[in-house]
Specification:
The protein folds into two domains: about 45 residues, no CATH class; about 45 residues, no CATH class. It is about 10% helix and about 30% strand. The chain is built from two helices and six strands. The longest helix is centred in the middle third of the chain and has 4 residues.
């Protein structure tokens, strides 16, 4: 298993994460469980995706929707437009 950091503020703990139908089904010692696909996370940190609350991706995210540079860093959510620039309209539609 990996070092599980669950986002609660508690210290990490060793364990496994069981996924069923793209959802977390179980967390703990699953060493006796058989999975269709296994990822060896020994020595790795397993945690929820990070939120980048001050991103400068802005409209470039539209050109690179996979956002691999963010994903490789564990970022799964980006808040854009944090410096006053946004591709979204802000005027009233009246």
């Amino acid at each position: 298993g990996g070092k599980i950091v669950d986002g609660t503020g508690n210290p990490w703990f060793p364990g496994d994460v069981g996924i069923v139908d793209d959802r977390i089904a179980e967390v703990g010692d699953l060493s006796d469980a058989a999975g269709e696909y296994e990822i060896d996370a020994a020595g790795k940190i397993v945690c929820p995706g990070f939120v980048d609350c001050h991103s400068h991706s802005d409209s470039t995210i539209l050109a690179n929707r996979a956002a691999t540079s963010s994903i490789y860093q564990g970022v799964t959510t980006e808040i854009v437009g944090s410096c006053g620039y946004s591709s979204a309209p802000i005027a009233d539609r009246s």
